């Protein structure tokens, strides 16, 4: 979970307290290895594949996927980052906090873009990412890779590559990072 989500969640500025560790670093590594193989299989190699990590949680996952794809295929697909803050549909309801610059290393026309995020919850961030991608070209395909799929979708969005399906309550928070995945909540 990004620091900006912690700041926006009541009580504002509260602290995330993990109650349960559901994946450790080894399980994260195995999930990334499996997801990388699925990306290669689905795309028949890495020709024309671009990975784009969504700021901030998807960037670390995209970097690990690219490294693993390098090990598997011997070539490294282009890696970009995308901040969707200006494309969200809830701008008036939440503070607008751009995290980091968007960096797309190649023109996306005709490419297979794999959007990468840490946790898929309602699907609104992915909808914003799809809008933002139009600025950088017209991909031939857009695929979605997430470490955690919580369910609770508000939009008809489904991930193509999933590390773990993790049913949660709506009031629980999931924090996915390199060391593992924790479920917990915010306390003051």
Structure description:
- With 188 residues, the protein is an alpha/beta fold.
- Helices cover 28% and strands 30% of the residues.
- It has four helices and eight strands, in the order αβαβαββαββββ.
- The strands form two sheets. Strands 3-2-4-5-6 form a five-stranded parallel beta sheet, with helices on both faces.
- Helix 2 (25-43) crosses helix 3 (57-73).
- The longest helix is centred in the first third of the chain and has 19 residues, at 25-43.
- The model has no long low-confidence stretch (mean pLDDT 88).
* Count, helices: 4
What is the quaternary state of this protein? single chain
Beta content? 25-35%
Helix and strand content put the structural class at alpha/beta
In angstroms, what separates the terminal alpha carbons?
17 Å
Strand order across the biggest sheet?
3-2-4-5-6
The number of strands is 8
Shape: globular
What is the helix fraction of residues, given as a range?
25-40%
Uncertain ranges: none
Would you list the SSEs in sequence order as H and E? HEHEHEEHEEEE
Mean pLDDT: 88
Rg, rounded, reads: 16 Å
Major sheet description: 5 strands, parallel
């Amino acid at each position: 979970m990004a620091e900006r989500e912690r700041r926006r969640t009541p009580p504002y500025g509260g602290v995330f307290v993990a109650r349960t560790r559901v994946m450790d670093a080894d399980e994260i590594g195995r999930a990334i290895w499996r997801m990388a193989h699925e990306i290669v299989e689905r795309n028949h190699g890495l020709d024309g594949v671009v990975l784009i990590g969504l700021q901030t949680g998807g960037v670390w996952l995209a970097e690990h996927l690219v490294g693993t794809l390098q090990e598997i295929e011997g070539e490294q697909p282009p890696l970009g980052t995308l901040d969707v803050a200006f494309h969200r549909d809830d701008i008036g309801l939440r503070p607008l906090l751009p995290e980091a610059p968007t960096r797309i290393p190649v023109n996306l026309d005709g490419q297979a873009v794999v959007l990468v995020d840490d946790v898929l919850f309602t699907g609104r961030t992915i909808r914003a990412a799809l809008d933002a991608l139009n600025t950088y070209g017209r991909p031939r395909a857009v695929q979605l890779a997430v470490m955690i799929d919580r369910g609770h979708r508000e939009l008809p969005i489904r991930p193509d590559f999933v590390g773990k399906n993790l049913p949660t309550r709506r009031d629980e928070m999931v924090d996915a990072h390199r060391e593992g995945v924790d479920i917990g909540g915010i306390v003051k």
